[in-house]
Design a protein that fits this description.
The protein is an all-alpha fold and 180 residues long. It is built from eight helices and no strands. The relative contact order is 0.18.
Length: 180
């Protein structure tokens, strides 16, 4: 029985094939433009206003929506729903359990994962968005539920627009696979 358990960890398939240079280039361009746009707004427009447009989980979203565009986890429903739901869950967790940050962090991520599964919006960076709401510090905590709108919904929407524009330039790429 123990042997069967550990045998599961060997995997069942081989590594996926390498990606061609064109795919790498378009992924780079999309990631650069998406993060650059969000960061530019954050640092040139919102700086000094107590708002931000960029959060760490957007880096992971960039990998998905520009580099793994066919993945169900990279589709618009997942990108937007996963981030927004997780942001609300993270803020709620912080507000309810902030005297116990370790617990607030764990409940935020676990609840976000479960909620994303239940709503068919699973987007792995959403777990980080929930966690950032808890551990992000005073500047994030001051935002309260505004965190779900700015930076989360607005930033993810900007990255989605860039993904729609860039991912459909080459004939070999098509994004999205589905909306809802």
């Amino acid at each position: 029985m123990l042997r069967d358990y550990f045998n599961k960890m060997q995997g069942v398939t081989k590594s996926p094939p390498a990606v061609n240079l064109s795919e790498i280039m378009w992924s780079w361009i999309g990631a650069f433009l998406g993060i650059a746009t969000v960061a530019l707004i954050s640092y040139k427009v919102l700086e000094g206003k107590g708002l931000t447009m960029i959060i760490g989980s957007f880096g992971a979203s960039a990998v998905l929506i520009y580099g793994a565009i066919k993945s169900p986890l990279a589709q618009p429903r997942n990108l937007l729903g996963g981030h927004i739901f997780s942001a609300v869950i993270g803020v709620t967790s912080y507000q309810l359990f902030n005297p116990h940050i370790w617990f607030a962090a764990a409940i935020a991520v676990a609840t976000a994962v479960a909620f994303m599964h239940a709503t068919k919006t699973l987007h792995p960076p959403g777990g980080a968005t929930a966690l950032i709401a808890v551990i992000g510090g005073e500047s994030v905590h001051k935002l309260g539920y505004l965190y779900a709108i700015i930076p989360t919904a607005a930033g993810a929407s900007i990255m989605l627009i860039v993904a729609l524009l860039v991912n459909n330039i080459p004939r070999s790429r098509r994004y999205p696979e589905f909306w809802l």
